[in-house]
Each structure stands twice: as C-alpha cells, then as structure tokens.
Amino acid sequence: MPDGIHRSMVTPADSADEPSAEAVAPWKSVRRTVALVAFGWATAGGTAGVAYLTLGSEWIPIMVGVVLCLAFAVALLLLHRALWLTVLSAVPALFVLVGAVQYAPEAALELRGVRENVVIVADSAAGTSSNNHRFTLRATNGDELEEKLGYDGDVWVPKVGDRLDVIRDPKGDVPMEQADDVDAAGRMSGLISGTVGWTLIAVLAGWRGHVRRRRGQGESLLLQLAY
User: Fold this and answer.
1) Other CB atoms closer than 10 Å to residue 99's CB: what's the count?
2) Nearest by Cα to 150 from 136, 140, 164, 130
3) Do residues 137 and 189 touch, judged by C-beta distance below 8 A?
4) Residue 214 banded pLDDT, cuts 50, 70, 90
5) Residue 146: HSE in the Cβ half-sphere, 13 Å Cα cutoff
6) Measuring CA to CA, which residue among 125, 127, 154, 128 is closest to residue 136?
7) What's the chain's average pLDDT?
8) How far is CA 122 from the centre of its chain?
9) C-alpha angle with apex 145: 140 to 150, nearest 5 degrees?
10) 3-state secondary structure (DSSP) of residue 112
C-alpha cells in the first residue's frame, strides 16, 4: 500500500479526546453567560411586574418567581457543569423572590395608603391554640375598622389593648400592614442585591464552564456535578 494512502487512514491517538473548537469558542461562552445574566434580570423584573399586576393575590407572583428561579438554577447548572455554584445561587435567589413579591404591595401602601393610629380591641385567636391572629381595630375617632389586621405566628404577638400605627389601602387591593413593617425601599434594595449576586455568580459560572469545556470536562454532566 502506498505510504501516502496509509497515512491518510491513520487517526492520531489523542485527536478523538480533544474538545472541538466550537465547544471551547470563547465568544460562544460569552453569549451563553450574557444570556443567563439577562434571564436573571428578566426574572427579577418579571416577578415584580406580576406582583404589581396581581396586587392582593400574593400566591401568583410567588409561583411565577419560584418557577423562574428554578429555571435560572437549571440554566446555571448547564452553563457551569457543577453543582456548588448552583447551590450558592439560592442565597441571592431568596433575596430576588422576597424583594420582587413584596416590593409592589408595600410601594402601593406607601404611595396611596392611609396611616392611622389604632388600638386592638379583639383577637380572633384569643382562647385558642391558633397562631393565625386577626385583630379587630378601633381608630382614634372610636370607629371600628372593617378590615382586620392579620398576624401569623406566636412570637412578638400584639395583645388586645396595644396601640399600633397601621397603613391601609383605601382601594382594598393590599392587606393592611403595621407601619413599621412597610419598607418598599428595603424590598427594592434586596431585589437589586439579589440580582447583582446572580450576575456575579453567572459570570463566574460562564468562565468556569468555559475552562471546563476547554479541558474536555463538560461532556458528562452527571459525572462532573461535584467537581
């Protein structure tokens, strides 16, 4: 057999083990990272938007936010090909979820809410083992408010006879809250902090994922989760 033909039929021993140029193309990794960052910001903004459009139905933005946060975690896992950064992203995800869900109703209370000084005259959980308190309130003019103040828990529970400052929504879209608990600026700060945390983690994941693929370590996700 001619030597030239013989050489054309032989494949170098380690060529099959080398990652393809497409798999380690830096701009491909950059595009993936930018797409993940954009999805993270869209998740934060979209959940906050849903919360604004569904004032009074807190479960809707919670469900939307949980699904989008899980989708971000899966995308992060696929980008990085390791589990530890995905677990770490749960911390900023909590800030994003809480901030996005609670910012809209608290901002509505601050913008259009009516602040009143009230006294607690009755507690629906009094004499029971329930931790779901619904307080009947009396305003300074002596009139009882139709809306009840909700409080779930058994720590630092207000008592009958306590005087409180509350903010209520005249439109009735947002439940009444104690004035000290309404902090729209704090919710927005938490939302932004969580989104920035996601951004930093996504950039780190993009860089690490690119390095892993360049080394040929990105083919089997299940075998590389703990790397």
Assistant:
1) 24
2) 136
3) no
4) low
5) 3
6) 125
7) 82
8) 36
9) 115
10) helix
- Give one DSSP letter per residue of 165-212, joined into a string: EEEE-TTSSS--EEGGG--HHHHHHHHHHHHHHHHHHHHHHHHHHHHH
Encode pLDDT of 163-185 as tens digits: 999 999 998 899 999 999 999 99
In this structure, how many other beta carbons lie within 10 angstroms of the beta carbon of residue 178? Answer: 14
Largest CA distance in the chain: 109
> What's the token pair of residue 142?
């002596």
Any alpha helices (H) in the chain, and if so which ranges?
Answer: 3-8, 26-53, 59-80, 84-88, 90-112, 184-214, 221-224
**Mean pLDDT along residues 100-114:** 94
Question: How does pLDDT run across 116-129, given as a tens digit for each residue?
Answer: 999 999 988 887 87
Both tokens of 101, joined, read 């869900």
HSE-CB at 196 with a 13 A cutoff on CA atoms is: 6
Question: What is the tally of helices (H) and strands (E) in the chain?
Answer: 7, 5
Tokens matching residue 180: 């000290």
The closest alpha carbon to 113, from 38, 60, 165, 69, belongs to 165
**Inter-axis angle of helices 184-214 and 26-53, to 10 degrees?**
160
Q: How sure is the predictor about 104, in pLDDT bands with cuts at 50, 70 and 90?
A: very high
